[in-house]
């Protein structure tokens, strides 16, 4: 219990020691279903194999607004008598003239502690940032052409970088808490030798709890915090779930938006969800977010080189 108190204190310290407020990493509203994207220690925390895809269309109606899609795959494994987790994350993020694509492999070591498990994880992968578009030069004799100043009327360049991340995650049947950092190595994404731009480290903290009202109804509050040590954001959410299959709730993203969330888990293991952001800032356009996930019961044991799968019904 002493070590758990120290761990929870560490998570809280990460949240409040980096107080500040759009970051380079994309934003999502259904963060409680997207933890692997920000925390590699989440890999394999569930007994099932899980696959999910989230598509976010931000600020609908605004030209060149962000459109982001992320795919996550996670499974627990047994190796040398110990519990582990592995996962895969693929990201496509488009914003104006810039398009970023990333692939990360996640690994977590799981250690049972009291009534839960404490997971230590890391991610290793690549991110490709590309920029493509035409230079805009106003009319008039006071302005020279792009070819004269820049050597070209357009820009078309990309940069592939190596990317690392770390995370810690603790989970019981009713509670979870975690913290992580992405872009640990601060990769240089400058498009040429004269420009040095980095992927800044992003720090995350998340926590959630399940409170049973009765045999059918549950309340699922959660909090999600992120910062790049310059800009920070916090989401506070409460979902109500019926019979572990149908849920709905509301999130508040401080100084940014109020979010409505609904979802359903079907008997065949398919899960769908939807959220809509109503801005509370000066931005007048809302954001749509769609979730599609699938989970099935499986057992993967590397040391015996056997794979057993039973469809979740």
CATH architecture: Beta Barrel
How far is the first residue's CA from the last residue's CA?
37 Å
Largest sheet geometry: 14 strands, antiparallel, barrel
Give the strand tally. 16
Which descriptor suits the 3D outline? globular
Per DSSP, the total helix count is 3
How many distinct domains? 1
Cα-based radius of gyration, to the nearest Å? 21 Å
Share of residues in helices: under 10%
Listing every helix as H and every strand as E from the N terminus to the C terminus, the arrangement reads: HHEEEEEHEEEEEEEEEEE
According to CATH, the fold-level topology is Porin
> Low-confidence stretches at least 5 residues in length (pLDDT < 50)?
1-22, 304-313
What does this protein structure show overall?
Strands 1-2-3-4-5-6-7-8-10-11-12-13-14-15 form a 14-stranded antiparallel barrel. With 313 residues, the chain is mainly beta. It is built from three helices and 16 strands. Helices cover 8% and strands 57% of the residues. A hairpin with a 4-residue loop joins strand 15 (287-301) and strand 16 (306-310). The protein has helices at 2-17, 35-38, 146-150, and strands spanning 48-57, 67-79, 82-95, 98-113, 116-134, 154-171, 175-182, 202-209, 211-212, 217-227, 232-242, 246-253, 257-265, 270-279, 287-301, 306-310.
